[in-house]
Design brief:
By secondary structure, the chain is an all-alpha fold. The protein has one domain (about 5-245): Vanadium-containing Chloroperoxidase, domain 1 (Up-down Bundle). The protein has helices at about 5-45, 50-65, 65-75, 90-105, 105-135, 150-155, 165-180, 185-200, 205-240, 240-245. The two termini are about 20 Å apart.
Length: about 250
């Protein structure tokens, strides 16, 4: 016959199995996302499958500038408060979001912070692998344009695939939508405008920004899933079990 100790050990084993499932899922999806990014990048670099789409969209965007769009794109394109390689507007976004959660929704502050850290660690890993195995030249090296020599020089040694601005902004949008769902629509609009602006200023192919959107969605979702799972695990360890209360 099994006694109370055996029952507790059985419950503990079952809890460990359940708690490990989300992390195994995150790892599996991260591997799949990494392989998809590398595979799509290889196709874009080594084939001409996307040229029929990239060229007309890119040329239309850079030939239809307006004063309003120029002003709106400027703070995205020009970093005035750079921290590491993170664009300035994302630094401001992070401070506002995490500051609001810390003051008004403290319960969500740590999970949101964890989601950012995990998502950007995974993003850095994919970026490193892309940089080791792929290099897609910027579109201004292929298509006619009127960009300044200084602007081209600032981007020339950075791979075009995928768009880092779009990837990171989409990660922010997903995390914002999770912890401040009322602002999900605004976060989505910002991410889409950043995607448009990267083609508009001549920095990326359209397929680069599409890749950045998809990669950011995946990384943001994985960051949220991992962070929420970690936080639930921490809270479960803090709470006494029913048999310990008795």
């Amino acid at each position: 016959m099994s006694g109370p100790d055996d029952t507790r050990r059985s419950h503990a084993r079952e809890e460990r199995r359940h708690s490990s499932r989300p992390f195994l899922l995150v790892i599996a999806l991260f591997v799949a996302l990494t392989l998809a990014s590398l595979g799509a990048g290889w196709v874009l670099v080594h084939t001409t499958l996307s040229s029929g789409f990239d060229r007309p969209v890119y040329e239309w965007a850079i030939q239809h500038h307006t004063p309003i769009l120029d002003v709106m794109s400027h703070p995205i394109d020009q970093n005035f408060l750079r921290f590491g390689v993170t664009p300035s507007y994302l630094n401001i976004w992070a401070v506002l979001l995490l500051g609001y959660l810390l003051i008004f929704r403290r319960r969500d502050f740590v999970p949101a912070l964890l989601a950012f850290v995990i998502a950007f660690l995974m993003s850095s890993a994919i970026l490193y692998l892309n940089s080791q195995f792929l290099f897609r030249a910027r579109p201004f090296t292929v298509f006619p344009n009127q960009l300044t020599a200084a602007y081209k020089a600032s981007l020339l040694h950075w791979t075009s695939w995928p768009s880092g601005h779009v990837r990171d902004t989409t990660i922010f949008a997903v995390i914002t939508a999770r912890y401040l769902p009322k602002l999900a629509w605004l976060a989505a609009i910002v991410a889409l405008f950043v995607a448009f602006s990267r083609v508009y200023v001549g920095a990326h192919y359209p397929t680069d920004v599409i890749g950045g959107l998809l990669l950011g969605l995946g990384l943001g979702a994985l960051g949220v899933l991992a962070a929420d799972s970690i936080w639930k695990w921490i809270e479960a360890r803090r709470s006494p079990r029913p048999d310990e209360r008795a």
